[in-house]
Amino acid sequence: MASAGCSSKSTDNSGGGGSNLTIQPLVQVDGQGKEVPAKDTTAAADPAGDGKGKCAPQTIAMAGPLTGDNANLGLNIIRGVKLALDQHNKANPGCQVTVKEFDTEGDPQKATQVIPTIVSDPSIVALIGPTFSGETKATGQILSDANLLSLTPSATNVTLTGNGWKNFFRGLGNDGIQGPAVAGYLKGTGKFKKICVIGDDSDYGTGLAKTVTEGLGSIADPSCAANVKAKQKDFSATVSKMASAKPDGIFYAGYYAEAAPLVSQLRDGGVTATFISDDGTKDVEFTKQAGGKSKDALLSCPCGPASDKFTAAYKAFNNYEPGTYSTEGYDLTTVVLKGIEAGKVIRPDLVDFVRNYDGQGLAREYKWGSTGELANALIWMYQVK
């Protein structure tokens, strides 16, 4: 979602779930965890443009989890992509752009079968994705070799931009920013004396757990650090460890499919420590699956709350509220559309267009450095209420 130009009263009910709890924004922070006021984004790039766009019919792709345990995170993105395309196509009858959807289930192995299909389709000029860090790591070289523009709205592992891929651009802050920012915020509140860090075994969870632990310093107790696995459902050993450690905070680095049963079992086991997690958990499915046991959880994200105007348009088009990464999907599609309208309709030209792009989006300013990292990225803190 958008890390600027947002109402502090907005809520995140991504996916249209049934929980009466909502994920509400608290504060935007910099890399040290200090509060930063949200920017006005009324001048954000509009996918509709001036309505004078001319192009032969074009096709882009989106790749990510559209089914599976963490499907909502991919569905949030594709709905943002489709909204941008709908607004563009309605305004520009002389330049029609469509999207082909590819389901990776967020699985690196599945992605290695899906991405070559995208690369070998000559009609596809750009990719929104991959979505998760693990699948991006597994397929980045394939995309780079094909020089197919890869704009990720969500993959945050720090190492992804260190592989020499010239076609890869990250549309939000990475875990090297998120970890210290969250740690700085938690330390700055003065509420936490002892935090246990739990990480899952994904590239995302492993990397974020490391940067959060380093940022917390002496507040992170290494004796109660723990690791869990993707698709794990029984966390009794971890709960026992947390109950013995008696921390006042638990940071979980991973996704909502494991975070929901983990927090539920922690509460059932009498562990009352504040549950803190990340953008992988920041989804309505977390509050739906954990119910009242998710209440008061703190969640960080390199994404921010959607503006009222975007929320209304997104909901009218998709019949869902925008969720985590919805605005990133919308913004990055808009960037590609600007390139297509500028006549950049072959793969290398679109890569060059994005490399030199500098424009305001709903989420943030999009301007990239030589490695594909944003020139400026901030983090938002949320709370389940």
From TrEMBL:
Signal sequence segment: none
Biased composition range(s): Low complexity: 39-48
Keywords: Signal
Segments for region (Disordered): 1-54
Biased composition (Polar residues): 1-13
Top-rank taxon: Bacteria
Family according to the record: Belongs to the leucine-binding protein family.
Domain Leucine-binding protein: 57-385
Protein's name according to its UniProt entry: ABC transporter substrate-binding protein
Annotated InterPro entries: Leu-bd, Peripla_BP_I
Lineage, opening ranks: Bacteria, Bacillati, Actinomycetota, Actinomycetes, Mycobacteriales
